[in-house]
Amino acid sequence: MRVKLRVYANLAEGASMDVGDNYDFHVDPGTTIAQLLAKAGINRRDVRIVMINNNQAELNSTIQDGDEVGVFPSMGGA
Amino acid sequence: MTDRILRVNMTNLQTTWQDLPEEYKMLGGRGLTSRIIANEVPPGCHPLSSSNKFIVAPGLLGGTTAPQSGRISIGGKSPLTGGIKESNAGGVIAQKLGSLGIRAIVVEGKAPAGELYLLEVMENEARLVKVKDLAGKGCYEVTDAIWDRYDKKVGVLTIGPAGEMCLTSAGVSVTDPNGSPGRFAGRGGLGALLGSKGLKAIVVLTDKTFEAHYYDEERFKAAAKRFVEVLRKNPVSGQTLPAYGTNGLVNVINEAGALPTRNFREGRFEGAENVSGERMARLIKERGGKTGHPCHPGCVIKCSNIYNDKNGDVLVSPLEYETVWALGPHCGIDDLDAIASMNRLCNDIGVDTIETGGAVGVAMEAGLIPFGDAQGAIGLIEQIKQGTPLGRIIGSGAAVTGQTFGVERVGVVKKQHITAYDPRAMKGIGVTYATSPMGADHTAGYSVAVNILRQGGYVDPLSPKGQVEISRNLQVATATIDSLGLCIFIAFSFLEQEESLGLILEMINSKTGSAWTAEDFTRLGEEILKTELNFNRRAGFTEAEDRLPDFFETEELPPHNEVFDVEPHELDTLFNFAEEVKKDAGKAASLR
Ligand code: SF4
């Protein structure tokens, strides 16, 4: 199945990806966010915020065909 | 040295020093401004009347070497909301006042009509000086003129033409260590309050910065030093805040489907990437600006920045998330340079960027100009400076603009505009908007940390459950932090690093000789909120004002297609520690 990954802030720099761009990945059914990150070359320990289709998710959440995933490091502000 | 309060009577143009009353000994910042207002300002007074008071107070830790201790609180009865107000900013004057042992400046009375003054504050002397040449001048020009007259080491607090016109979105500008007047206590129209007094600026004439006196200096310094290390170790305060500023939130909140777009029509903005923190950081670097910039001496987090224009000249400092949102996505504008130009204009005129962006978005909703029209928006803001009738309407904020043009979808609570998080996609912040005695104010209880940022736990942003409790806990803790004069961004450490609270208590105790525990920390926050609630009740506020505008309950927000559904009776339990205030409300109203 095919999913899209968007990477932000210093995670993007670290993985040499463009901030917020959609990167397509082919993954097997039952793949988790953590496995997707490994495939993308992102250290799961650097990831604090995960969203699937704009919904909050966890590193062990499984992804479905067509999902759009966004990941961030620890972020703050107000 | 005894700590003092400086009283400035604008009616008879006298200044007097008052020894700090025992009652105020452990209060600073918001705790002190709110207490003085509750004690001295008649709740029913008109905010622009001579009975209202404009109060400036550094935090309890102001003037110390504690990291992040240089926030300055400004308080009064709000010309915008009609309730009690505290708005705080960075800049240099908190550390200066703290170093001089000046715990508050209380401006009372009203100058004769047509007269404009400047207040000089020195260690043991204060003087009101008549200023004709500063009338109608913008904050940048005023600051330059004051530096020419004195020197660049003075701290300056000033209002722009909006404050002089008593417009209800007028804020108060404070100069930063680089001399930019862009540090704003923007919210609640406190610039109008100072303008009504006939006071254009306050100049603090001292080089002193970290010279507060301590009960036990060695203990204090050890705790402060350790606190610096703790803040640096935290990934938010040590890495992403300095790298992307608060504007790093654009992409997070957009990805969460909670970025209010085109006056709360959608939760995602197609132009978000163009105005994001990552884009901003890149432009700043390319143009020779600066990220990781401190807004006051002693800030080690440094979320501020200096944003240059295409030619490499300073355009504005700082460019922040709430401003970018209000003048950007809220208005359908995705041009960061245009947003920065509007930010500079707002700083110069002396209006709150959030309220102004809010009002411009409402004007777009009304069809005055189309969404996305940056030049049109700049034109509207320029009219505020010119004082045209339309400019005065926009400068009076979103509620007045909406009322004038017959707009229903106006995102205000207690007439103050909501900020950069849609409460339908992030219900915890909706609870804070609805209930804070300040009116809609995200900083009063930043539930976003728990709903989206995963700091200090997690509560599902889309569920109505558990939101009142997180907002309550955060509102209480924030009131205390605002009282200490600490920047709110220590909260990210506070929520995640256990050591933080102990270090803050150690700094309080070694500064003052007290023996505070965690319970005292909470008690102070609750007391401040009770004081504020009590004032608002006596000013005529009821629980009916603790609500979001009803379109949030009836119009679904894409992409989640959610409405705000925290029940009113649950909102009413937010201040469950203040039942006696609620019971007394009727009685108090009749006494005013
Ligand atoms: S972290 Fe940001 S807001 Fe806080 S004191 Fe530093 S520059 Fe100012």
How would you portray this structure in words?
The complex is a heterodimer of chains A (about 80) and B (about 600). Chain A has about 80 residues and is an alpha+beta fold. Helices cover about 20% and strands about 30% of the residues of chain A. In chain B, helix 11 packs parallel to helix 13, helix 16 crosses helix 18 and helix 21 runs parallel beside helix 24. The longest helix of chain B is centred in the last third of the chain and has 21 residues. Among the domains of chain B are: about 200 residues, Aldehyde ferredoxin oxidoreductase, N-terminal domain (Aldehyde Ferredoxin Oxidoreductase,  A, domain 1), CATH 3.60.9.10; about 180 residues, Aldehyde Ferredoxin Oxidoreductase Protein, subunit A, domain 2, CATH 1.10.569. Chain B has about 600 residues and is α+β, with helices and mostly antiparallel strands. The C terminus of chain B is likely disordered. At the A-B interface, helix 1 of A face helix 7, helix 8 and helix 9 of B. The site of iron/sulfur cluster has 12 residues of chain B, from loops.
Question: What general form of chain A does the structure show?
Answer: globular
The CATH class assignment of the domain at 4-204 in chain B is Alpha Beta
Question: Any ligands, ions or cofactors bound here, and which?
Answer: iron/sulfur cluster
Averaging pLDDT over every residue of chain B, what do you get? 96
Share in helix of chain B: 40-55%
Largest interface: A-B, 22 and 48 residues
Beta-strand residue percentage of chain A: 25-35%
CATH topology of chain A: Ubiquitin-like (UB roll)
Low-confidence stretches of chain A: none
